[in-house]
UniProtKB/TrEMBL annotation:
Name this polypeptide is given: Uncharacterized protein
Pfam families recorded: MBOAT
Protein keywords: Acyltransferase, Membrane, Transferase, Transmembrane, Transmembrane helix
Taxonomic placement: Eukaryota, Fungi, Dikarya, Basidiomycota, Agaricomycotina
A GO cellular component entry from the record: membrane
Protein location: Membrane
Domain of life the protein comes from: Eukaryota
Membrane topology: Multi-pass membrane protein
């Protein structure tokens, strides 16, 4: 048995003792009052006894005989542990089915004896699934290590014990070092595991030659895992290194992209599981997520942390019925995320590093939304609004259902986030059945999924291909360091990219200055928004009905609107088109919830929501510089729209004037300019680096902002309103209606004109 931190089989033994006691108590109760017993309880007793008869003996023999016992051999241990985790999975699944069949209401709604039986059933179910997850993860982990050791031409791998196997010993076929001489002509990335501050970390090495403007090897520490401190050989990552060098990406980024692309064929497999087998769908989600996190991404500790948040949320929402329950969940999961943000800041991870906070940010949205949905399910229907009524959870899920929801594989790494009701509609194909949708071969799933999904995939790949093909040399971190250190631009003319650097524009120009600061977010958008959206659509998520020509539409999983990001006519349209799912979460789980009942949301609600958004993103000062700058940009955008735009609107039925077209073009150009300026701190993270970078750009963004605000607050607003009054008979006067709550933006602070309006 493996002598690894946390010793997984020993934990299973402890849980088996608990399950045995609970199952015996439940069986005693049912035989006394119901003159019978539950089949799942009998299976739980049998599985617990089998576990307790074998695992302690195997552990003892390994310790006393130093791995020489027959039962310690990998070829014996793995098959037996696999049999055990199948039995534990069957126990948990039968328990979940029995709980749904027998205990229709919440456990607290029964008399004491039945309540106790209900709670015992839930606990048996929970510990059975935990034992399944622990044993399955352990067997997969050991199997991967054994296969890698075998490929390195080690002998006797399968006949040795886990404790003595040459898992971490270099073999004849070990991978060559990924380091690169300083004078090498191309950049290289390679991982090497080190220990820092009690965390298992990796140094991702990036070398660039002097001819490329590089400064030699640069190191960015990446958090591989917290405890347990497992470490896979670098040889597996070495498989990705040549491709990473070819496309100009880090190994972490490349592995993320591969996971997102692999989700496409897996999505097609997922939807072929019949809706009559929901357990298989939940297990499919769990299995694929573990495949991503363990052998591919090596994020063992990250998965353990996510699982801890999931289990904490499950039991808090299940057993704590106070009105404060959602806020308790919010505090637990947001506090956990903030701790990891602090760790990320201490280790100074770059934005290219893949670690726990990315998936955790998505999970925080899902878990807090679930808590509010459960809370709404316990409230009176007349006290709820339309969204709360549609998303409320009235029947508490089984642990397996909740794990499947939490670890929904197309969205686990970077989103999209979905609520529990939509997930169960996806599992049961409820939405398709309600709309009487008929697809091919008599299935309920509507046709057209693949057309939309693969269009998303190809769009994202094309965007990424253009970036990698033309701008692989534009590594933002090194460019930012050059800017901060005062390095001269390679070519003076390239500084023009500050005028037109929003993604493809900078790429097509081949520019290399700092101006294209939004390139990083755009690259992330291309992969982390388009790719998972397409994979989600293949699983059946996001169906929004039929279009005007009879084609199916799949906009429910969308998180961005690409065209309105690239060519937004104003800043509000840009914000409305970016991170749309995050805005829904902030609106429904914070903005509305912090507003006292019977009152309208105001400045206080907006600031609390903005603060939540800021902490959710992280604690780096660069985030806050971007958000505050965004608030000022929104202010001048609102003032321009309210005071200048009405003067240029055509008369009813007339075509837009040349002046209106020029206004629209200038609005798009200024939006791109200000986006690039405001996005710089979001990528650099550090306050000092951000200020120095802005200084190198001449603070042009704040010159535009300051000049505009000075104009509007120094009498410009009053003068423009007079012009509007003079032209009132010719103008189209827009209706002065407040922004609906479902169109409000919460990722930036309230605009200044809402607090201190200019004189009109």
């Amino acid at each position: 048995m493996a002598l690894l931190p946390l010793h997984p089989p020993s934990v299973v033994v402890g849980f088996a003792v608990i399950v045995l006691g609970l199952s015996a108590a439940l069986t005693s109760t049912t035989e006394k009052y119901l003159d019978g017993y539950f089949k799942f309880a009998a299976l739980a007793i049998a599985t617990s006894v089998l576990t307790l008869l074998t695992l302690p003996l195997m552990i003892a023999l390994e310790i006393t005989q130093s791995g020489a016992a027959f039962t310690s051999k990998i070829m014996v241990e793995l098959p037996w542990l696999s049999i055990l985790w199948v039995l534990w999975l069957a126990t948990g699944s039968d328990g979940a089915q029995a709980a749904q069949t027998v205990f229709l209401a919440d456990c607290s709604d029964y008399i004491p004896k039945i309540k106790a039986a209900c709670q015992e059933t839930s606990a048996i179910q929970a510990f059975s699934f935990l034992n399944w997850l622990i044993l399955m993860a352990y067997t997969i982990f050991v199997l991967v290590l054994a296969i890698i050791a075998q490929t390195r031409q080690h002998t006797g791998v399968w006949s040795s014990s886990v404790a003595t196997a040459p898992f971490f010993t270099p073999g004849a076929a070990s991978a060559p070092t990924t380091s690169q001489p300083v004078d090498a002509p191309a950049a290289s990335y390679g991982p090497s595991t080190v220990s820092a501050g009690g965390y298992e970390t990796q140094h991702v090495v990036h070398s660039a030659s002097a001819s490329q403007g590089g400064t030699g090897p640069a190191f960015a520490r990446t958090l591989a895992s917290k405890t347990p401190t497992f470490s896979l050989p670098a040889s597996m990552d070495a498989l990705f290194v040549p491709l990473a060098e070819a496309v100009g990406a880090s190994v972490d980024q490349l592995k993320l992209i591969i996971c997102l692309l692999v989700a496409y064929p897996l999505g097609s497999l997922f939807i072929r599981i019949p809706s009559s087998q929901p357990v298989l769908k939940h297990l499919f989600n769990l299995g694929i997520t573990m495949l991503f996190f363990f052998p591919v991404l090596h994020l063992y500790g990250a998965f353990a942390q996510l699982l801890a948040s999931v289990l904490a949320t499950f039991y808090i929402t299940k057993y704590y019925h106070s009105s404060a329950m959602p806020w308790v969940v919010f505090a637990v999961v947001m506090g956990h995320l903030t701790v990891n943000h602090i760790i990320r800041s201490i280790f100074q991870f770059s934005y290219e590093t893949l670690e726990v906070t990315g998936p955790q940010m998505v999970l925080v949205m899902k878990l807090t939304t679930f808590a509010w949905n459960v809370h709404d399910g316990r409230r009176r229907a007349e006290d709820l609004d339309k969204w709360q009524t549609a998303k409320r959870v009235t029947q508490f899920p089984s642990l397996l259902e909740f794990l499947g929801y939490s670890f929904y594989f197309p969205g686990i790494l970077v989103g999209p986030y979905l609520d529990f009701v939509d997930y169960m509609d996806l599992i049961n194909e409820t939405l398709f059945k309600k709309l009487a949708v008929k697809g091919k071969n008599g299935r309920n799933v509507p046709s057209g999924r693949k057309r939309v999904a693969y269009r998303k995939m190809f769009f994202g790949l094309a965007y990424l291909g253009v970036f990698c093909g033309l701008c692989s040399h534009m590594e933002l971190r090194h460019r930012s360091l050059s800017v901060v250190r005062g390095t001269k631009y390679a070519h003076p003319g390239r500084s023009i990219s500050v005028l037109w650097g929003n993604g493809t524009h900078e790429i097509l120009c081949g520019l290399d200055s700092y101006g294209g600061a939004s390139l990083g977010p755009l690259r992330r958008f291309a992969v982390s928004d388009c790719e998972p959206q397409g994979a989600s659509i293949l699983t059946g998520l996001g169906f929004t009905g039929m279009g005007p020509s009879g084609e199916t539409t799949w906009d429910g999983a969308a998180n961005v609107d690409p065209l309105n990001i690239e060519l937004a006519p104003n800043f509000k349209v840009l914000l409305d088109s970016w991170n749309m799912k995050t805005n829904v979460w902030l609106r429904e789980c914070v903005y509305k919830r912090v507003t006292p009942k019977g009152k309208k949301p105001g400045f206080r609600s907006s600031m609390i929501t903005f603060g939540t958004s800021a902490f959710w993103h992280g604690i780096a000062g660069g985030y806050y510089l971007t958000f505050v700058t965004g608030g000022f940009i929104t202010t001048i955008s609102r003032l321009a729209r309210a005071n200048i735009r009405p003067l240029l609107l055509p008369a009813p039925g007339a075509s837009p004037s040349i002046a209106k077209r020029i206004y629209d073009m200038l609005g798009t150009l200024i939006t791109i300019l200000l986006l690039n300026f405001a996005a710089a701190p979001f990528m650099l993270l550090g306050v000092n680096d951000s200020i120095v970078a802005w200084a190198r750009l001449g603070f042009y963004g704040y010159i535009i902002i300051g000049g505009s605000m000075a104009f509007f607050y120094a009498g410009g607003t009053k003068g423009l309103r007079r012009l509007q009054a003079k032209q009132a008979s010719k103008m189209v006067k827009p209706e002065a209606v407040p922004t609906p709550v479902n169109e409000k933006q919460f990722m930036i602070p309230p605009s200044l004109d809402q607090i201190i309006p200019p004189q009109k």
